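Late entry, evening session. Most of the bench is empty. Finally got around to the prediction I had been postponing all week. Sequence below, unchanged from the version circulated by S.P.
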Amino acid sequence: MSHIVSIQTEIRDPVAIRSACDRLRFPEPVFGEVKLFSSFATGWAVQLPEWRYPVVFDVNTAKLAFDNFGGRWGDTKQLDCFLQGYAVEKAKLEARRNGHTITEQLLGDGSIKLTVNVGGAA
């Protein structure tokens, strides 16, 4: 029996942040206080390709901070790509943690299909 699940992503897991960066070949995330254009943010900083300032994730509140000047300093498609990668990596971590195997398939529209096999060993 199959089940379709929709996921609303909250960025709360530093391990999954790092895994998403590895997956996408982004620089390793760095924890700390980061200067944005006219403010500071504290959390896990991820430098997206061609973004002037990093995106900063506060895993305690699931809030993110960034300054891309309405798209002039960074394309939001890169942020969407990171969020998708994070969701996939977090789902894989949780499935494995619960003793399941998981496979992924990239679909033609850019979405990713994950199949979790309950009870499988990773």
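Two things to note before I forget:
The longest strand covers residues 40-46.
The longest helix spans residues 76-97.
Will write this up properly tomorrow.
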